[in-house]
Design goal:
The chain has 2 domains: about 30 residues; about 120 residues, no CATH class. With about 150 residues, it is an all-alpha fold. Helix content is about 75%, strand content about 0%.
């Protein structure tokens, strides 16, 4: 009887473990590819191009952004990244378009909205703000962002 009880406890624990793993895999599968693309872009932005506050929050931002499962989440995370990029790192024209762009990020509902916003931001980040690897990978990233 004790053996039967131990076996049923083991089966119960194993069942909980398997269900937990399935839930985690489902969450990862549901993650937006745009979130991962945004994390990829950010990984090429130089430390000199972001403010000091970014260093303390980057790891959490990266985790949250990679786990985004919808366009609204990616849009909000995009706005957070932009908030920490220094003015010297973006094109002068960015100052004029920034306020409406941030508003659009915060209200983005579709992948198409976020794609447009990501491309606009990347286009306005200067070459000096990104590493050399980005210059080689940029065209592929743009194509991936534009992909439906």
């Amino acid at each position: 009887m004790k053996q039967l009880l131990r076996n049923s406890q083991t089966v119960g624990r194993l069942t909980v473990f398997v269900l937990t793993m399935i839930a985690a895999a489902t969450a990862l599968a549901a993650a937006s590819p745009l979130g991962k693309l945004l994390v990829d872009f950010e990984s090429h932005v130089k430390w000199e191009a972001v403010d000091d506050g970014w260093k303390g929050m980057r790891d959490k931002w990266t985790d949250e952004t990679a786990a985004c499962d919808n366009a609204s989440c990616v849009g909000r995370q995009l706005a957070v990244l932009e908030e920490h990029v220094k003015w010297e790192a973006v094109a002068p024209a960015w100052k004029k378009m920034r306020d409406s762009w941030v508003s659009d990020c915060k209200s983005a509902k579709t992948d198409a909205d976020v794609r447009k916003l990501m491309l606009s931001f990347e286009e306005n980040v200067g070459w000096k703000a990104v590493d050399e690897d980005w210059k080689a990978q940029r065209d592929g990233w743009i194509a991936a962002v534009k992909k439906d």
